[in-house]
Design a protein that fits this description.
By secondary structure, this protein is an alpha/beta fold. It contains eight helices and ten strands. It is globular and about 50 Å long. The two termini are about 30 Å apart. The relative contact order is 0.19. The N terminus is likely disordered.
Amino acid sequence: MGRAAAVVDKLSGIPGGATAFAVDRLPVRGRGAAVLCYHDVGTDPANDTDYYLGPDLFRAHLEWIRAWGLSIVPLAEIVDRLGTGRDLDGLVAITFDDALLGVLEHAAPILEAQRAPATVFVVTDVVGVDPPFWPGAARTLTTDELRALTASGLVTLGSHTATHASLPDVAPDVRTRELTSSRAWLEELTGAPVDLFAYPFGHHDGTSESAALAAGYRAACTFTFGRVTADTPVAAIPRFCIGPMHDKFRLGRQLARAARAW
């Protein structure tokens, strides 16, 4: 069976056979940490938005990661270790962008069953609505649902701006408002400091990186593929975008690939 044939139905799509056998022989422990970025998890076969995958595949991802000897840790731990120069090898963080309904309905029970921490980045001005920045996606979580999502203590909320604006493309005052108002809203909701951020669309530049740090965030995540190593800038944390195409082989390859290869 070829690699392309191993990518099957995105809602249940767990491959086996030669691909699974081959990846079990990989040394899935590249130098540095890996941060994975998910978006939505669900069971609707009519949902054809990008990065929508089934709960069985999401559960399998967590199981494979641990079976490969890697540790799933909060994103905050990776940021802490980066800031203090401690070892990052073998660590994986799970993140979700946009705070869509499937994260609460389908991903959260799996995270809780597996005691796996995650960070969910919220677009604070569009809670409880169909996201205007992503036609066809499930609605975003309401305020009460965000509270429910964090009730187990496994999920931490971070900011994804107020409106999902591309920060390099807006005026300086708008950029500041996107960063600060979303952080203030989340801190009022959670009653705790919020200091993790993810750039909408992954768009960032030197100006937006500096603005994120000035707004009080201690780390900001991109969509630039790569590993978190000792020299990774805290305002440009790389992440792997994960979707239904990530069968066991492809996920294993991402986690095994050397930092210098990106």
